[in-house]
Design a protein that fits this description.
The structure holds 2 protein chains of 2 kinds. Chain A is 32% helix and 19% strand. Chain A has 18 helices and 21 strands. Chain A has a 7-stranded mixed β-sheet. Chain A is globular. Chain B is globular, with a radius of gyration of 23 Å. The model of chain B has no long low-confidence stretch (mean pLDDT 83). Classes of the chains: A alpha+beta, B mainly alpha. Chains A and B meet through helix 5, helix 8, helix 9 and helix 15 of A and helix 2, helix 4, helix 6 and helix 11 of B. Chain B: This is ABC transporter permease. Chain B: Belongs to the binding-protein-dependent transport system permease family. Chain B: It is found in: Cell membrane.
Chain lengths: 539, 317
């Protein structure tokens, strides 16, 4: 009797502790079904687009600046990461000074310092460096086009140099992940060349991130364990297992049969079934644009701003949202209203078919002389949502205002290639617009590469050869605005001008749907392409 | 027999060359650019061109083909453009996984096909015959991926009996024949088995029907042999042809399981090829097709030799 009372008392005493325990005791293994066909590269610069950054970049490595992924209620902003502060040199605006965080260690135990930063910049920008890796250049240099080199000032201070004054550098640097030089040196000592050393590093990577790799089976799975020596807030989950499952139905079945706890991008058709089985469906505004990008070449009807505006007005985006089971956001520009870069455009993107018809008639297109547009689209592809059904919906919508749309459906890789070639290239096959979705979390990705005349093919993604000195001047102004508020104001002016000129046909923003087991707790879906894997745990 | 073997092995060389060349050219003709496996689409032109030079993709096609061929002769299938990993290391694990799947599927297809075909041939015109033929026709007609999804919905999603994807509990098939691993094998193997099952059923039915009409069967009956005894004789006569069919099916399953491997996320050659096609990963594509073609050639050779061994009437010149 006494023993029973003692046990009862002990249990009652433990209750408050259990009630407050989740954060402290939370653990378990979260198994994630990715859309990627392979494990994103673990050499410090992931491939597979931003899904790579999401799963093997941010969790395993850190960057000097990082995205704040802690809130679902506001657009993610750049915060200190491995650098605690940064400033541009007032005497030389191509020189940035970064103060590094002290006491940070890589997973292999070596110290993170200025030498490590210089080493990581050289790995992708210095072709003479012994550890230069051409494989990592493609996914790095493209995302920080003005970065040229790094120089150590002292153990915890480093200078980064750009080719021209560029206030966007701290944002771009979220893409440069810091790999451990000591770990690479160890592999190099046992490898015949630098390429093989990087291959060995990828099998046993070492970064400073909140997770470290414990098992890597190429093409099949990556297991990560919580890194208890992490400098910041430690992960709640003990382990994360990443499984590449490129087929949407296979991902859904894997979740429903309890083989995984979380899947990326469930098919919209499967969402009711997932809900009925108690799964949690999460989504949030994402810096993503699903557009038609117009061609501004001499003979393109989309050179006329009235036509571009008319098409923007002819689209029933709410209907499209219904088609997608609610899994899209209705765009009013490249960034949403309320975003620091939104500005005050006078052109209000909405559905107004009467106004669309009026503008088309003004531009000379009538039922007797209808407008015919040719658009290059893909049947599938990363970030492309449901391209065929969405485009067919648009085709029907535009028919109502007298615009005939013909599609040139090509494979995703080919569409990508053509995107780089531009609309005047033979590969465009006379298309007046192309349908490539893109990330818009960074001003360079969101606007500069499309609207800067210097970014015309083959330099970057100004596919339509848009060329307007007003926009070039606004972009230069934004790059030269080093005060964050000034820079945001300049970007807002640029964005507003882009909306007024209807430089895209803005059709949808993805909302990054995910489905997960109700056992997953603590998950926050930020307004970003990324997630903070330190937060979720499994109950 | 020895010279026949040598001659068949020598035949494989021009076949390998032709396969390599056709595959190389087909990938070049297809729209899209292998450079997309290495750099994102938003890469500036100068970076793209630099990376293209680094990987030798700027060289004329005959030079690229020559370099690849030279390496292959030395046993080096190159490195994946997408991952930088050795093609051979990825391919060897993928072949292992696919071989396991194909063997189990072939065994299921062979056993079911021989049983159904044997019954149908023996009881021609009966309900059993019609049912077996119906199953065989359905087996060769039903799309793989559709059947795979139906099986997943029933056995994984609804009943929760079997896993829906993956090759094993730890990610790899590992050739571990315990129930934990075999659970992962059941659904893809059954899905893959339906086509060989259908083909073998029809083949065996035809052969058995033909043999049953031959005089030696009448003679055996006249000698008072039991039904089972006669059946064994008939099966022995039918075996070489059935074996040839299943041998070709094994080759087909090795290369033709792209859809099934994709539906079940089975990390074999089909999934590897699928990914390589979408990424324009030239070295993986070339290496995989070459090795599969050589496997097919070798398999044909083995089947020929086994047929000869089983049926002394077949003589090789």
């Amino acid at each position: 009797m006494r023993l029973r009372r003692f046990l009862l008392t002990a249990c009652l005493a433990a209750l408050p502790a259990l009630a407050t325990a989740p954060a402290a005791q939370a653990q378990g293994t979260i198994r994630i079904g990715m859309t990627a066909a392979d494990i994103p590269l673990t050499n410090g610069q992931p491939d597979q687009g931003f899904e790579g950054n999401r799963f093997t970049g941010i969790p395993l490595f850190d960057s000097l600046t990082m995205w704040d992924l802690s809130s679902a209620d506001r657009p993610s902003t750049v915060i200190p990461g491995l650098a605690t502060e940064w400033r541009v040199d007032p005497n030389d605006r191509t020189r940035w000074i970064f103060t590094l965080r002290r006491g940070v260690r890589f997973h292999d135990g070596s110290e993170f310092n200025a030498d490590a930063v210089v080493w990581n910049v050289r790995k992708v920008l210095d072709r003479e460096a012994p550890h230069f890796d051409p494989r990592q250049v493609g996914v790095t240099a493209t995302r920080m086009p003005t970065l040229r080199r790094a120089e150590k000032i002292d153990d915890y201070t480093v200078a980064l140099f750009t080719s021209e004054p560029d206030s966007l550098l701290p944002i771009n640097l979220t893409n440069l992940f810091m790999a451990s030089p000591a770990q690479w040196d160890r592999h190099r000592a046992a490898s015949p060349n630098a390429e093989a050393a990087w291959g060995a590093f990828a099998r046993e990577p070492s970064g400073t991130g909140p997770f470290r790799v414990t098992r890597f089976v190429p093409r099949e799975r990556l297991e990560m364990a919580r890194f208890d020596g992490y400098w910041g807030e430690k992960a709640r989950a003990e382990r994360i297992v990443l499984l590449p499952i490129p087929e949407a139905n296979a991902r859904t079945a894997a979740l429903l049969s309890n083989q995984v706890d979380w899947i990326e991008a469930p098919s919209p058709d499967a969402i009711p079934q997932l809900r009925s089985r108690g799964m949690t469906i999460t989504s949030n505004a994402q810096p993503h644009v699903w557009p038609w990008q117009p061609c501004f070449a001499e003979n393109s009807p989309l050179r006329d701003v009235r036509v571009r505006r008319a098409i923007n007005l002819a689209i029933d985006r709410e209907g499209l949202r219904t088609l997608l089971g609610g899994m899209m956001a209705v765009p009013v520009g490249t960034v949403p209203r309320g975003h620091p870069w939104f500005g005050n455009p006078s052109f209000n993107i909405r559905t107004d078919k009467a106004e669309a018809r009026r503008l088309l008639a003004e531009a000379g297109y009538t039922p007797q002389r209808p407008l015919t547009l040719r658009v290059q689209i893909s049947a599938s592809g990363s970030g492309q949502m449901q391209p065929l059904s969405m485009n067919e919906f648009l085709q029907q919508d535009l028919k109502e205002v007298g615009v005939n749309v013909e599609f040139d459906v090509i494979e995703w890789n080919a569409l990508f290639t053509n995107w780089r070639n531009g609309c005047q290239h033979a590969s465009a096959r006379g298309a007046h617009a192309t349908n490539v979705s893109f990330a818009a979390m960074d001003p360079f990705f969101a606007m500069v590469r499309f609207w800067d005349s210097k970014m015309a093919p083959p330099v970057s993604n100004n596919w339509g050869h848009f060329n307007d000195p007003r926009f070039d001047a606004m972009i230069a102004e934004a790059r030269n605005a080093f005060d964050p508020a000034e820079r945001d104001a300049a970007l807002a002016r640029l964005h507003a001008a882009g909306v007024d000129e209807a430089l895209f046909i803005w059709i949808a923003h993805d909302v990054a749907p995910r489905a997960m087991s109700p056992r997953i707790r603590g998950y926050v879906q930020p307004q970003s392409w990324f997630v903070d894997l330190r937060l979720p745990y499994i109950q | 027999m020895f010279f026949y073997l040598i001659r068949r092995i020598l035949y494989a060389i021009p076949i390998a060359l032709a396969v390599g060349f056709v595959c190389f050219m087909l990938v070049q003709i297809a729209p899209g650019d292998p450079i997309n496996a290495i750099v994102p689409a938003d890469a500036p032109g100068d970076v793209v061109e630099q990376v293209r030079r680094d990987y030798g993709l700027d060289k004329p096609l005959p030079v690229q083909f020559g370099i690849w061929l030279l390496k292959v002769v030395q046993g080096d299938l190159g490195r994946s453009l997408a991952t930088g990993r050795s093609v051979w290391s990825d391919l060897s694990s993928a072949i292992g996984n696919t071989l396991m799947l194909a063997l189990v599927a072939s065994a299921i297809g062979f056993i079911l096909g021989c049983t159904l075909g044997g019954l149908a041939g023996t009881f021609r015109g009966s309900f059993i015959d019609r049912a077996a033929v119906g199953i065989a026709v359905a087996g060769v007609s039903v799309p793989h991926y559709w059947l795979g999804m139906v099986l997943v919905i029933i056995f994984s999603v609804q009943l929760n009996w079997l896993p829906a994807m993956g090759a094993g509990p730890g990610g790899s098939a590992d050739w571990a024949w315990n129930w934990e691993h075999m659970q992962h094998l059941v659904l893809p193997a059954v899905t893959l088995a339906v086509i060989p099952m259908g083909i073998v059923t029809r083949t065996v039915r035809g052969i058995i029907a033909e043999i049953m009409n031959q005089e030696f069967v009448t003679a055996l009956r006249g000698k008072g042999l039991t039904r089972i005894g006669i059946f064994i004789h008939v099966v022995k006569n039918a075996a070489p042809n059935a074996l040839a069919v299943i041998g070709l099916q094994l080759g087909y399953l090795m290369g033709g399981s792209i859809l099934v491997e994709t539906v079940f996320s089975w990390p074999g050659t089909g999934l590897l090829l699928n990914n390589a096609i979408f990424q324009r990963d030239l070295p993986v594509l070339q290496g995989t097709i070459l090795v599969l073609a050589m496997f097919f050639v070798a398999l044909n050779l083995v089947v020929d030799l086994m047929q000869t061994a089983l049926d002394p009437r077949i003589k090789r010149a």
